[in-house]
Specification:
Largest sheet: 7 strands, parallel
Distance between the termini: 12 Å
Strand content: 15-25%
CATH architecture of the largest domain: 3-Layer(aba) Sandwich
Oligomer: single chain
CATH class of the largest domain: Alpha Beta
Number of domains: 2
Helix content: 40-55%
Number of helices: 15
Length: 362
Amino acid sequence: MKIAIDASKLEVKYKTGTEYYAQELIFGLLKTLPAEFSIILYSHKPLDKSILRLHPNTQNHIIKNKFLWTLWGLSLALLRDRPDRFYTPASIIPPIHPKKSIIVIHGLEYEAFPKAYSLFRFWHLAIFTKLSAKWASTVITPSQSTKEDLSSEYEINPDKIKVIQSGIPNSKIDKQDTTKSTIQDLKTSEYFLFIGRKELRKNLLTVIEAFDLVKLSQPDLRLVLAGSPGYGYQDIEKAMNKSEYKKDIINLSRVNNLEKFTLYQHTRAVLYPSFYEGFGFPILEALQQGVPVIASDIPSSREVGNSMIEYIEVDNIKAWAKAMIAALQKDKLKSDIQSRQEYTQKFDFKDTIEQTKNIILK
């Protein structure tokens, strides 16, 4: 059997949850697919040779198209190579594809928050995600809520949508990782933490206003926002500068894994205030570290966090402030830390890989 995989996400230098998911799935498939199978990995540039050694019969086909890489370049490559299966863990299915094509659709964020995307990007996602879902022999989603969104928004037959819960990405710490001096200083501070792309969809304006309310009774408290700027960052930056307590809002850029886990270890709670998410990797990462999570009350967060985290009405500023104050008053009990860590053990990437492999081979 010949299996083709879109491996373009392996080339992304600064990976978010979706890219980590793609990496774990591709590596896991290469390690577990039968040795007699032929595997083709498509990418823009040559992949590291260590990746190709994960499976004894792996080829790396380079598609050099800079424009319409998936729609044109990948289509022609699949037409030429004629694989029995095609799998894409975090992209779209090209117009020319095998009958047996499997796609992972992580969420419909662009439908829930279209302002976060350029007009071209929005229509590209809307059109080709819908077409990919219709073209696919099987659609995989990491949550039931994403499955329901696909079924209702795009009228995709729910029988062809399979929910395979994601595991927690294996965030390895490089020996050369170093923590910023600012992060080292935070070890002695009381702070709340947000990690993710700083964009309007993440609802950071509400968190900043809630923080201002909490500061009235908690003068030593700090708010740490870590992540790259995204759509609407200028509005978020304006809100930070407008805050009476802007000196206590720590605005960090993207952090590496060592810095991220250092922040998790010392925060009072992780804030996850998004208007919409397809899954919720930061929730699982925080719980894995035994850290409390306060999240917006949206379906995907409830599905991931279950009874282990606290849910707040997404735009209720006073409710967010009240939850933050309550979190500060709670002691860090060893039993609570242990129960959170034990809860995350069921989110094992080995299960995600095995279920995905079974769908590909079915």
